[in-house]
Specification:
The chain is built from 16 helices and 12 strands. It has about 375 residues and is an alpha+beta fold. Strands 2-1-3-12-6 form a 5-stranded mixed beta sheet. A 3-stranded antiparallel beta sheet has the order 10-7-11. A two-stranded antiparallel ribbon has the order 4-5.
Length: about 375
């Protein structure tokens, strides 16, 4: 029997559906190891590709992986019909998010973006605009928090800039205008001053855990996790579209999710390709994936009535945001820029630096990583 070793990330959404399908498919053996979320977001893919046949990957890391020649291009593994199916049924820009240098390097298996999270609480109705968020943070001191841990301070900043109509990148160049950047940071500063500081370093899973416990009630832009909106999740969290700014209809957000990549060390078999393509089929995405706490990448699953009924309308409540979500660059060096710039913004908020100084530091940081 064919045997393959895979690596995914340490949240039920990331491993339960994959393990369930591996157990159900008796034509081959796939064993899934698990790494921490921080490793998934930042660990170089090329290092992991030396040890695993299958990798669940984050789209910004694709560029560095391709430069190291450690992944199979999908064009060499799939038929044109299979490629067309994935293109037509992937949610938002999920399919394009794994394209680099004219080829595709991972199959979307999970679609996600920052969305608005609100617990059952006195706040009641989800905010429509960032002005609403600012007002709620004044009325409910300590009950509104930003997602700032790890790379998420920068990603929250990007989300607000998107809502303001700012252009972030042109090719590999960071072209955000200073006025928009300062406006976004003013919003972040005002919210950070009134939030519970113990939440500052938490990743999205940690934040949502605290929200479910009752520590706070609202995060206006955070990567959504389906398991927090299911009936057995305790103090249920509901997910909505992110706020907009002014008269804009743009729900600012950054595209996340995951893709399944095949490492160059792997010798793919027809059975393996069939195993993967069955997993991303409409029927499997609507049933096995959702039933095991997964977040499907297939748009038909996002629109499925049963899937929405099972998840308190997680999918329909956030679909507009996910389909508008910003696609980050994938150039070699972007991940380092993202991690270090996020630290600059987070520390700037903690230390009370001026918005002008934070913007200058982020722009200088980008120049550094573009020159390396």
């Amino acid at each position: 029997m064919n045997y393959f070793k895979g690596l995914t990330w340490d949240h039920p959404r990331g491993y339960r559906p994959l393990q369930a399908w591996a157990k159900a498919d008796e034509t081959l053996k796939v064993e899934w190891d698990i790494q921490k979320l921080e490793g998934f977001e930042s660990h170089p893919i090329d290092d992991l590709a030396e040890k695993y046949d299958l990798l669940i990957v984050d789209n910004p890391g694709i560029g560095e992986a391709v430069e190291k020649k450690c992944l199979w291009p999908l064009e060499d593994l799939l038929t044109s019909e299979q490629m067309a199916y994935l293109r037509e049924t992937s949610t938002g820009d999920s399919w394009d998010s794994y394209q680099y240098k004219g080829k595709h390097w991972a199959i979307p298996v999970d679609a996600a973006s920052q969305v608005c999270a609100l617990a059952d609480s006195n706040i009641g109705i989800a905010p429509v605009s960032w002005d609403d968020v600012l007002l709620l943070s004044q009325e409910h001191e300590g009950r509104v928090a930003l997602s700032l841990g790890g790379p998420h301070a920068l990603l929250t900043f990007f989300s607000i800039c998107q809502s303001l109509g700012g252009k972030l990148f042109e090719g590999h160049c960071f072209v955000l205008d200073t006025r928009t950047a300062i406006q976004a940071l003013h919003i972040m500063q005002a919210l950070y001053r009134r939030q519970n500081k113990a939440l500052t370093s938490l990743n999205p899973i940690g934040l949502l855990d605290e929200m479910a416990k009752g520590t706070f009630d609202l995060c206006p832009a955070i990567f959504g996790y389906i398991n927090f909106s299911t009936p057995d999740s305790g103090r249920r969290v509901k997910f909505y579209n992110t706020p907009h700014c002014g008269d804009s209809t743009v729900h600012g957000s950054v595209l996340g999710g995951t893709g399944l990549a095949v490492s160059s060390r792997c010798t793919p078999t027809p059975e393996l390709i069939r195993h993967i393509m069955t997993y991303v089929s409409e029927e499997m995405q609507k049933t096995l994936v959702v039933e095991n706490g997964g977040q499907p990448a297939n748009i038909l699953a996002w629109k499925d009535k049963r899937a929405n009924d099972l998840t308190h309308h997680f999918f329909s409540g956030t679909l507009e945001t996910v389909t508008q979500a910003y696609l980050r660059p994938k150039y070699h060096g972007y991940i380092s820029f993202q991690d270090t710039s996020s630290a600059i913004i987070r520390n700037g908020l903690i230390d009370g630096l001026s918005t002008e100084d934070i913007v200058l530091a982020v722009k200088e940081n980008h120049r550094k990583f573009r020159l390396e």
